[in-house]
Automatic annotation (TrEMBL):
This is PH domain-containing protein. It comes from Periophthalmus magnuspinnatus. GO terms for cellular component: cytoplasm. Residues 4-129 form the PH domain. Transmembrane segments: none annotated. One of its GO terms (biological process) is Ras protein signal transduction. PROSITE patterns: PH_DOMAIN (PS50003).
Length: 129
């Protein structure tokens, strides 16, 4: 599996309550489609880091969102969310996900670039090296 992770990290997903998830964002490549993979995470973060050493988390539920199914990514300033996080909506053809992260702007930028081919020069802050 040669797919490159473009960005990854802990996020919160609003179900009935905010739940920690692990997100991996993949660029489209010759071996796979551009996609967002969301894994449920146990509350202890150490488990996530162990999983990173051994590859993909095996036991966690995984949800795959194809970037081609993404319709829009919008900030959600009115959502109350975990401390130091900002919420945003990921609207797809099948569902709307309410997510929160300490690095929401970075994530929105990354999703816009990969899903909608927006050039980074149009986005506030140059986050790409």
């Amino acid at each position: 599996d040669m797919d490159t992770v473009f960005k990854e990290g802990l996020l919160y997903l609003q179900a009935k309550t905010w739940r920690k998830i692990w997100m991996s964002l993949y660029k489209p490549s010759s071996t796979g489609v551009g996609r967002l993979e969301l894994y449920t995470v146990a509350d202890n973060i150490a488990a996530v880091h162990d999983n990173k050493k051994t590859g993909r988390p095996k036991s966690q539920a995984r949800k795959v969102v194809r970037l081609s199914d993404c319709l829009s990514v919008t900030a959600a300033p009115k959502e109350s969310c975990p401390t130091d996080c900002e919420a945003f909506y990921l609207n797809t053809t099948s569902a709307t996900y309410t997510l929160a992260s300490p690095t929401t702007q970075d994530l929105i930028n990354a999703l816009c670039v990969l899903a909608f081919q927006v050039t980074t020069s149009l986005l506030p802050g140059n986050w790409e090296e």
